Every structure is written in C-alpha cells, then in structure tokens.
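Task: sequence design from structure.
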C-alpha cells in the first residue's frame, strides 16, 4: 500500500519532528509514503474565522494537491474534521464536487488508519513513566476517534496510562477562540491541567498538537513539570 500524508501547516512550521515520526511509523507498518511538498493548509483557520471565500480558495488548492485515489494520513484530527465535515459546505455542487467527495472518503486521522485499516497497533515503542490522555474535541466529535489512541498506547512498553477526570472536556484552544477569548481559554486550560495533574502523570498525550500547544503554554507559564507529547511521537519512541 502507498499512502499520501498531509502535514498541517502548524505542524510543518512548529513541530516538524512529528511529521518525520509520522513517516517512520507508516514505513514501520509496511506502508509506502508519498509527500507532496506543495501542500500547505486545509483552509480551517480561515473557515473558522468566517472568511469563507478565502477558506474555499485554500481548500481548492488542498484538493488539487491530492489527485490520487489513495489514503491520506494526517496527524491532526481537527484538519481531518475540517475536510470530512465542512468541505461539503464549500464544494457541494461545484466544479470540484466529485474531487472533494473522493478526498472526504480518503482522509484518515493517523490512529484511525493504524488501528482500523492497517490493524497495526504494536510498534515496539518504549517510554517509561505515567501518561494521561486528552481527547480533543475534533478527535471525539468530528473524527470519531476515542478508543484508537488508547489501544496504541496500551502497547507502549514501560508506559502506564491513567485516565483523568473529564478527559472529554475542551482544553480551551479552539483555534481563534483562544485569541479572542483569552481569559476563558486560559481558565479552561487551567481546569484541564488540574485534572491531568490529579493522576500524577509524566506525560500529557493527545492526537492534536494544537491542543497540546495551548496547554504547553499554560504549563510553561506556571512552571508545571508535565511533558506534552503527540501520540505519533510516543509511538516512535525507543526504536
């Protein structure tokens, strides 16, 4: 099998190691990886901000960057949710109607693809310590991902997973929400971190680096020793 990967813009610019680890995981699972260097963004930031025409322009570029009928693997549930749930609003009954439907069918959040398509859960990863898991809003409510990350984490040697209270509640990021409503976003991050710290973890893991980036800001500002890690980076540890 050959797949395409979509590396979201903020991962490309801020967390490139996660993108590299995504390639390592897929190759270890026996999958060939294709990367189109012209890719940039799915259009989600503009869409969420109300700039529909701008989002449509970026979305058109995204669709044209994945012309092949093969799986598209993405390490961000929010981007997957954008394509699956909001591209119909942008491209239904347009000249790109058939193309967007193909993209919508082909795109997968990485843990969903590994568990439900490849049936590959054990990468031989090793990470000593205690972890707690944050369910991002996009993963739960837009990509229908919940059990998949946990199944993968169960196979990580040396790692104990402890569930925090209210794991399904929002961390406060919400894209531009955290910019426009900073005090509320910070308060939500505080509640989330308090719930996480109650189980005495070493690591805070999620499928969404956008959430982790928001919570990491709170952790650093308050000198809290808890390391955020994307699921992909955890699975690429120790080998």
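Answer:
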């Amino acid at each position: 099998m050959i797949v395409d990967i979509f590396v979201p813009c903020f991962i490309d610019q801020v967390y490139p190691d996660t993108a590299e680890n995504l390639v390592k995981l897929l190759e270890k699972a026996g999958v060939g990886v294709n990367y189109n260097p012209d890719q940039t963004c799915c259009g989600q930031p503009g869409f969420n901000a109300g700039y529909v025409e701008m989002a449509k322009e970026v979305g058109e570029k995204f669709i044209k960057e994945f012309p092949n009928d093969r799986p598209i693997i993405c390490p961000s549930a929010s981007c997957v949710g954008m394509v699956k749930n909001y591209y119909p609003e942008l491209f239904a009954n347009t000249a790109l109607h058939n193309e967007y439907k193909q993209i919508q069918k082909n795109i997968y959040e990485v843990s969903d693809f590994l568990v439900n398509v490849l049936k590959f859960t054990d990468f031989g990863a090793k990470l000593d310590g205690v972890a707690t898991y944050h369910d991002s809003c996009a993963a739960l409510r837009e990509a229908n991902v919940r059990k998949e990350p946990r199944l993968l984490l169960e196979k990580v040697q040396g790692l104990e997973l402890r569930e925090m209270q209210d794991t399904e509640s929002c961390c406060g990021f919400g894209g531009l929400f955290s910019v426009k409503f900073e005090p509320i976003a910070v308060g939500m991050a505080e509640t989330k971190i308090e719930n996480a710290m109650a189980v005495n973890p070493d690591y805070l893991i999620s499928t969404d680096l956008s959430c982790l980036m928001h919570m990491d800001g709170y952790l650093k500002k308050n000198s809290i020793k808890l390391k955020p890690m994307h699921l992909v980076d955890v699975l690429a540890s120790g080998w």
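The mean pLDDT is 95.
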